[in-house]
Amino acid sequence: MSAPAIDARTAHADGVERLLASYRALPAGAPVRLAKPTSNLFRSRAKTITPGLDTSGLTDVIEVDPVARTADVAGMCTYEDIVAATLPFGLAPLVVPQLKTITLGGAVTGLGIESTSFRSGMPHESVRELDILTGGGELVTASATRHPGFYRGFPNSYGTLGYAVRLRIELETAPPFVELRHVRFHALADLVTAMERIVETGRFDGARVDYLDGVVFSADESYLCLGAQTAEPGPVSDYTRQRIYYRSIQHDDGVKTDRLTIHDYLWRWDADWFWCSEAFGAQHPVVRRLWPRRHRRSSSYAALMRLERRFDIGDRLEKLHGRPPRERVIQDIEVPIGRSAEFLEWFLATVPIEPIWLCPLRLRDDAGWPLYPIPPRETYVNVGFWSTVPVGATDGATNRLIEQRVSELDGHKSLYSDAFYPRDEFDRLYGGDEYRALKQRYDPDSRLLDLYAKAVQRR
User: Fold this and answer.
1) Residues 127, 105: contact at Cβ < 8 Å?
2) Residue 45: which CATH number?
3) DSSP 8-state assignment for residue 139
4) pLDDT in tens, 53-70
5) What is the DSSP string of 338-385?
6) Parent domain of 112
7) What is the mean pLDDT of the segment spanning 199-217?
8) Residue 39 in domain
9) Does 426 reside within a domain?
10) Is the pLDDT confidence value at 3 over 60?
11) Mean pLDDT in residue range 213-240
């Protein structure tokens, strides 16, 4: 072990001790929460005056083992920092979520997804073991063989069973460049057919596909974005300046090619928060030239969005123009690939939001994950849509309509944003019995929030 790794482990141990000390300093029975400056959750939360746990020493990569192709990472370390530590070894996590400030612990206790998910599943599937601070104050090391029920029940628990303190994750080789093919489709059914074939074979028109996602602009304009790893040097594009990635994929017909460095490919969506930077004017050519390059990133837009929500700026502007307030529809859902065209056609006809992101996934672990029980080895399509619509007759009317349609199509939805499920339906969809058993074992005094209270009741 190198000296830097020893130093990092010592620093991590100190950070863990500060975390535990802050837990012990809480009054008996007081609720437990993290003190963290940022969040990638998109739901409102009730305010609390309880001091948060000290996570200041849990933000680093502890060690990269290029021989074993693993990394030990602190739970609050961002993927931006993980990628910065692993790419010099020609390695990357098996799944790198799209936004730089998503933390490894957040992606595992919530759910992350990206263009490798059709072959590598979700981030929690590449975790070999993890240390978890439970609601009861224990520090538990969980793996497939140690506390296996906790290991499998922790994903999708959103910090209601405990917090990831250290995680050992698998890495894969990451050559320095990605060759891209953007394939245009004029019918959603044709896109889905091609996507299904790529997932099954790993190829398109005879060429290997290492990365796969897509964008729907309308019923007759959609794209699959296919990436292939390569070490071959050559000219590359840059979408951190004036050019905008999602606009670059559009063309009239056939296939359009492009090249990026592996670093820029992994963060291709971050510079414009997919396409949501448009809401802040950041895609206007003049504004873009004036907008500091260092602030063309998702964390800057998220900070602006939090300010907008805090002061209710959007609804105030709508009222000024004589329009009704807006309902946020910020969701990622998964439906079986065989039902995905049906969902997309319904969504485009019902909900006035576009573009829409597509990302196929297939869980690779046969044992399954009880709090997000989609069948392993079966292909689903993640559909992401992030905008607002006019408010309906009831709170969350459009969101609830989407939830019902997703359930009708045997799908599921992530819980990082607003949810409106009745309790019995929520328990059925999100492993209610298994969750309650884990809650009783690892948080017997309910120091942490209940998952339903956090995800639906916004506590």
Assistant:
1) no
2) 3.30.465.10
3) E
4) 999 999 999 999 999 999
5) HHHHHHHHHHHHHS----EEEEEE----TT--TTS-PPTTS-EEEEEE
6) 3-174+445-455
7) 98
8) yes
9) no
10) no
11) 97
| 375 alpha-carbon distance from chain centroid | 19
Q: Give pLDDT tens digits for 398-419.
A: 999 999 999 999 999 999 989 9
Residue 35 to residue 38: CA distance in whole angstroms: 9
pTM for this model (two decimals): 0.94
Look over the chain and give the mean of its residue pLDDT values, rounded to a whole number. 93
Rounded distance between C-alpha atoms, residue 365 and residue 377, angstroms: 8
- Contacts of 258 by beta carbon, 8 Å cutoff, 6+ apart: 179, 180, 182, 237, 248
Peptide bond into 123 cis (omega under 30): no
Q: Which helix (H) or strand (E) holds 149?
A: helix 148-153
* Residue 409 is assigned to a structural domain of this protein: no
Question: How far is the CA of 308 from the CAs of 63, 123, 459, in angstroms?
Answer: 39, 31, 20
Domain count for the chain: 1
Tokens linked to 22: 């802050």
Q: Which helix (H) or strand (E) holds 26?
A: none
pLDDT digits (tens, 9 = 90+) for 347-380: 999 999 999 999 999 999 888 899 988 898 899 9
In angstroms and rounded to an integer, the radius of gyration of the C-alpha atoms of the chain is 22
DSSP helix/strand/coil, 63: strand
Q: Where are the beta strands (DSSP E) in 2-86?
A: 34-35, 53-54, 61-65, 70-74
Would you tell me how many other CB atoms lie within 10 Å of the CB of residue 327? 17
In a domain, 146, yes or no: yes
**Strand pairing category for 70-74 and 380-390:** unpaired
